[in-house]
Each structure stands twice: as structure tokens, then as C-alpha cells.
Specification:
Length: 123
């Protein structure tokens, strides 16, 4: 059985190459680098990355370089409509992923209330 890791994207991004590359290579924050190192060592994990631009995406989804929104996520001021759309989209992605596979472990570097939502969806 596989493990699922849900990690927040970073405002630190690799600008090169200019063509789309997997999200796990495009984002370059501390958590992503740790996951990337572990990901190379084993293939018994699935990784989802949460981004304010792309929403919740697979680590293998190819994405373009886009300038980060703000210096860090804590200072991000998104319109409530955008937040609502992202939340709805993210829950759909999460439900789809959890319906396709049983995971032995789910890990997230998100807030505790976000993790509680993940656990409820996994049950």
C-alpha cells in the first residue's frame, strides 16, 4: 500500500526550464525539497501539492513557471470568491485521489483543521 503526502507549494520556484515541468520540480521550497529527496528514493508514495495558483495538484502534473503571488502564503490576500472556488476544486481532487486508492498513511504539512478534513474524507 502507498502513503500520501500533501505539501504546500512554495513562493520559491524554479524559473527554468521555461516549458512545463512536473510540479515537484517547479516548486523549490524547503518542504518540497525534502519530499523530492524522499520521492526519488521510493515509489510507494503519492504526492499532492497545494498552490494558491494551481490549487491541489499531483506532483507529476506539468506546470509552467508563474510568478509567485506575494512573498509568502501567510500574507496572501485572496478574494473570498477565489478562496471558495479553490476550496471546492481542492476537495474534488482530494476525494478523487482518496476514492482511487487506500493509503496506509496520510501526511500533511498543512494546518491541523485541514488535516482533520483530509481524515474525514479518507474514512
Amino acid at each position: 500500500m502507498k502513503n500520501l503526502i500533501i505539501v504546500s507549494g512554495s513562493t520559491r520556484l524554479n524559473k527554468e526550464p521555461s516549458q512545463p515541468i512536473p510540479a515537484i520540480q517547479r516548486f523549490d521550497g524547503v518542504f518540497i525539497r525534502l519530499v523530492r529527496k524522499y520521492y526519488r528514493q521510493t515509489k510507494d508514495i503519492d504526492v499532492l501539492i497545494l498552490s494558491p495558483v494551481y490549487g491541489l495538484i499531483s506532483s507529476e502534473e506539468k506546470i509552467d513557471f508563474r510568478e509567485p503571488i506575494g512573498e509568502n502564503w501567510r500574507e496572501l490576500n485572496l478574494d473570498n470568491n477565489i478562496v471558495s472556488k479553490l476550496r471546492e476544486s481542492n476537495l474534488k481532487v482530494l476525494k478523487k485521489v482518496l476514492s482511487k486508492r487506500n493509503y496506509t498513511e496520510i501526511t500533511s504539512n498543512g494546518a491541523l483543521e485541514d488535516y482533520a478534513t483530509i481524515v474525514r474524507l479518507a474514512l
